[in-house]
Amino acid sequence: MTVTEEREVGSPRRRKEDARLITGRTMWTENVVLPGMLHLAILRSPVAHARITHVDTSAARELSGVVDAFSGRDVADIQGGLPCAWPVTEDMVHPDHPPLAVDEVRHVGEPVAVVVARSRAAALDALAAVEVDYEALPVVLDLEAALADGADLVHADKGTNRSYTWVFDSGEAGTGEAVDAALDGAEVVIKRRYRQQRLIPAFMEPRSVVVDPTGDQYTIWSATQIPHILRFLVSAITGTPEHKVRVVAPDVGGGFGGKLQVTPEELIAFVAAKRLGKPVKYTESRSDSLVSAHHGRDMIQDIELAARRDGTITGLRVKLLANMGAYLGLVTPGVPILGAFMYNAIYKIPAYRFECTGVFTNTTFTDAYRGAGRPEATYAIERIMDELAVEVGLDPVEVRRRNWINADEFPYTTVAGLTYDSGDYEAATTRALELLGYDELRREQAQRRDSGDTVQLGIGVSTYTEMCGLAPSRVLGSLRYGAGGWETASIRMLPTGKVEVVTGTSPHGQGHETAWSQIVADQLGVAFDDVEVLHGDTRTSYKGLDTYGSRSLAVGGIALYNACQKVVDKAKPIAAHMLECDPADLEFTGGQFRVRGNPDNGKSLADCALAVFAAHDLPDGVEPTLDADAVYDPVNFSFPHGTHLCAAEVDTQTGRVAIRKYVAVDDIGRVINPLIVEGQVHGGVAQGVAQALFEDAVYDADGNLLSGTFVDYTLPSPADLVDIVTDRTESPAPDHPLGTKGVGEAGTIASTPAVVNAIVDALRPYGVNDIQMPCTPERVWRAAQGGGA
Amino acid sequence: MTRISVTVDGVRYDDDVEPRTLLVHHLREQLGKVGTVVGCDTSNCGACTVLMSDPDGRLVGVKSCSVLAVQADGREITTIEGLAGPGNTLHPVQRAFHERHALQCGFCTPGMIMAAVDLLSENPDPTDDEIREGLEGNLCRCTGYQNIVRAVRDAAAAAREAGTSAEPEPPTVEAVDAATPDGGLPSEGTPDEAVPQPVP
Ligand code: FES
Ligand code: FES
């Protein structure tokens, strides 16, 4: 057993990444410039559904500086199709998804033709010279209409707009009772329909890709979250041997799931570079990004909750319609399925049924967006818990308390079949209530109600859990996901005692370089500044499963920890040899091997690193290296949880919502770096609040994206948000040697229902029991006038 | 093509540009000033913010995607790459962004820092609300802005304490050269900054 002093882990280290980011020395993909590099521009469909009757790129090819121009038809045989790695059912309908449309376009923004030219401006100019004729086809937008008999079809050859129906039933699975009986005999049944509006991840760095075919490998720089998965799939799709493909994700400017994709644009650039034998770059404009990078959410949720009069839940039935968009992206069908395990949330529910139908429409395809399935689930259950509280006349906190899993009941196997590892919902909730000043605000609310104040006060409660640390490979396999869930780490001990860490995770804002350095510093007893973390280039990090689903620390952190232990184990016989003692007599603390009972006599890890470098005097049979690799496959998900409370003032005359106080108490297990954790919570809450109040990707009746620029797709600005209060409770993860869980998605999952519950709570006296998101002033005002929303 | 002369981060550049070329593209593609980035095509995000001298020679924040390169003829421009002082001493706003963890992916950061410098040169002692209003033209998807507001507040206080303004010194070539892997952040001990600690 290695003894380490924990000096770094737990401390709010300032990030090492910052040095380059605050001085403009960053390597974005768009910064890549190569000799002879050409620029690619993409002509996108202006219509939602049409047959392409004619395409002619010859005029464009004549223009000065234009090197190549081609359409989907020109490359139909070689461009391959985009992958879906998650066929959730055996009979899932999975339409072909060509990078460049060949005969038909199925959403506005779908790539139709490309121009490659000497400069970006020349390529963009030449797009105007590409001729395309479209013959309009009926546009499918409404989820319910799309499933009706005789509906117009997005993919005529498939004969249906239904992609799949996926069911989980606790009675059938043996994890609980049958839900029908529970609902039929219930004392209280609450039925609601909630709509998850469509959102756009809107990472700040537009997607960009450079493909260089001039070396011994195809090198692909891409603003992606998933360099390793991209390499594997580019190889599989194009038939290029995997060892001939190198992918580099340099500095990547945010992702939020939006860059968890193998994109048409990446494959188009690959095809162009291969055709021309020259490096090719494509960087999207923001308008292109909003219309073509995958969207998120967009579901209709029908929820039925059965309970006894005392507020005890007896059953839950969930029926979802999930908008796939026109095609299936990398994990599109699986996103709502991740939610299937989370509708039961932190509650003890005896009977549960979940049914989800994926539906095709003539819109941009959807896929993962921060939380992926879990925010939707949490929203629905936390909204309906408030309705239950009203129905049975309990405080919303009390109704939750009566149903949640108690701290002494962990590990707890839920009705959805997952085993929650640890938690203390009471502790987090108590802390949150205290920080908010709950009782006092309730009193103020009562006063405002009594006096008929035009500005009403509402308090929204959201208690959540989530599953993070995607994921045990066997579980993924049982869910028909195409890959495993392990992660890797390698440690290279340099002769001078400095350390290079290679991680299979691929950070794009999460601060892995800092957090990983903190872990290594403690485990190896080296200085924080003596650790360099390398990632995102398959030449150095050839194996990994990248960053999404709050998995990097929860899974990759264990691989890193294990790799550190291996380094120490390798160094020990070498230190013993130098100290002329038995390895069993050595202990390792603070980077030093010391003979037990003789603290003055020691050798550092750096001494051992130098010794293996020289290799002049090593014990017989010892390999001259301290380097170590580790691959870790998690044994379970980890389950962070927390309680978020929002107090909002709602002006009944203007519909304006002002968040007065927002408290987030999260329990994410042990914390490596509280500063980074706080930042993740801030940003996560901001995105969740944005869903509640601001953001909406809207299509008109013809399938045009109305919110196609930052003018109309309204990301909150600094003036739109307020400071929040954060705190933590701590239930260490039992399966993680460092006790950590994950935090990347917590804020987004928790905050949306907290805000909407607050608004609805404020307007209860006006007969309001729901408001459609985003809760714009107009909707809130209408609701307050009794006009519904 | 039009001939323009622009001084960027202390260096004069004379170039022929197309009349339609945006300043941000001139900076990035012709001058290699890739620290300044493009985040949108509707002047909403502020990622491209730089400081440009007005006719009186005062440096003011501009969105370089909304300025034509020809409009920058004869002007001085400071980008994120020229903000640090001699020997790569960080500008108070840069330092505060680091201290306060006011960036995650860092894509908005060059524009956000330049906008904050601009804001503080107008208002050296802003309230939190004034900071939020003042940075309204800059979007960040990662941070929720809370730490950005803290950082700007801290930078203002630091500048006032030091009796200097947060307005940047004209950059020198030496300062820019120091921006190398070993010219980065000053190394620090383990900080003991007060952040929320878990309740027992
Ligand atoms: S690039 Fe968005 S405002 Fe200039
Ligand atoms: S730090 Fe990522 S957009 Fe601001």
Automatic annotation (TrEMBL), chain A:
Residues 23-138 form the Aldehyde oxidase/xanthine dehydrogenase a/b hammerhead domain. Coiled coil: none annotated. It holds the Pfam family Ald_Xan_dh_C. GO terms for molecular function: iron ion binding; oxidoreductase activity. Its cofactor is Mo-molybdopterin cytosine dinucleotide. Keywords: Molybdenum, Oxidoreductase. This is Carbon-monoxide dehydrogenase large subunit.
TrEMBL record, chain B:
Residues 6-54 form the 2Fe-2S ferredoxin-type domain. Residues 156-200 are annotated as: Disordered. Signal peptide: none annotated. One of its GO terms (molecular function) is metal ion binding. Keywords: 2Fe-2S, Iron, Iron-sulfur, Metal-binding, Oxidoreductase. InterPro entries: 2Fe-2S-bd, 2Fe-2S-bd_dom_sf, 2Fe-2S_ferredoxin-like_sf, 2Fe-2S_ferredoxin-type, Beta-grasp_dom_sf, Diverse_Oxidoreductases. Residues 79-153 form the [2Fe-2S]-binding domain. SUPFAM superfamilies: 2Fe-2S ferredoxin-like, CO dehydrogenase ISP C-domain like. PANTHER family: OXIDOREDUCTASE WITH IRON-SULFUR SUBUNIT (PTHR44379). This is Carbon-monoxide dehydrogenase small subunit. It comes from Planosporangium mesophilum. The gene is coxS.
